[in-house]
Automatic annotation (TrEMBL):
A Pfam family: Asp_Glu_race
Keyword Isomerase: yes
Positions of transmembrane segments: none
Keyword field: Isomerase
Presence of the UniProt keyword Mitochondrion in the record: no
Domain of life the protein comes from: Bacteria
GO MF term set: amino-acid racemase activity
Protein name as catalogued: Aspartate racemase
Protein family per UniProt: Belongs to the aspartate/glutamate racemases family.
């Protein structure tokens, strides 16, 4: 089975997250030889300004660099585009019109997933930018879903510290303390009644796997990777998800 569709990944948000998303595509591919894999263009754009700092503190917008990456994808003939960051989708309506490719949206894919599976109490882990923008809340509450979050102290001292702190998930060397903080954040959501834990940040699965959690866990990057495989191998043309 050979995919003839060109897939683009915009990474660098962080760098490991982009590499992980590419690895997910490889792991899920039904390819039996070199030619069976998707043709993938990965732009690890480490110059994209921090999304949370832009949303929460009004610092430099990531849009200019995001559009530069999209332009590179357009020139490469990419048909399906994946962004290895959840928080960047706060700007979805502003950048999607620049893309010639279909841009998969993990927020929409998560909504489809939890509605289909019937989960009611959704434990969300995401950056402060994602949570401040109510990205998951706005998508899920219209389907009568209860969103379970960390409180402000836990968000900054457990989640954000594990992602952005010294030897955090965005660094090249990750400490056990970092992993422990993320696991503690997960346990807090479970204790508050979450029926499923959502990895709503592309770095979370560096530290958290299903085997670590006694309830279902879903990474939004997994949902995107699965959808990309479906579109590239099992459909004649890529459907329009830019909506």
């Amino acid at each position: 089975m050979i995919s003839k569709k060109r897939v683009g990944i915009i990474g660098g948000m962080g760098t490991q997250a982009g590499a992980n998303l590419f690895q997910k595509l490889i792991d899920l591919s039904p390819a039996n030889n070199d030619q069976g894999f998707m043709e993938v263009f990965l732009h690890s754009n480490s110059q994209i300004p921090d999304r949370t700092r832009a949303i929460v503190y009004g610092e430099e917008s990531p849009l200019k660099e995001m559009i530069r990456s999209i332009d590179l994808m357009n020139k490469s003939g990419v048909e399906l585009l994946l962004l290895a960051c959840n928080t960047i989708y706060h700007y979805y309506d502003e950048f999607v019109t620049y893309a010639d490719a279909i841009v998969l949206n993990p927020i929409h894919l998560l909504r489809e997933y939890v509605v289909e599976k019937g989960f009611k109490k959704i434990g969300i882990l995401g950056t402060t930018g994602t949570m401040a923008a109510n990205m998951f809340d706005n998508e899920l509450r219209q389907y009568d879903k209860e969103i379970i979050k960390l409180d402000s102290w836990e968000q900054e001292n457990l989640f954000m510290e594990s992602v952005y702190g010294k030897n955090g998930l965005k660094s090249s060397t990750i400490s056990q303390e970092t992993i422990d903080k993320m696991h503690n954040a997960v346990r807090l959501l479970i204790d508050r009644g979450a029926e499923i834990i959502v990895g709503g940040c592309s770095e979370i699965s560096i530290a958290v796997q299903q085997s670590d959690i006694p309830i279902p866990y879903i990474d939004t990057m997994d949902l995107m990777a699965q959808k990309a495989i479906e579109e590239c191998y099992y459909k004649e043309k890529v459907l329009n998800y830019n909506q």
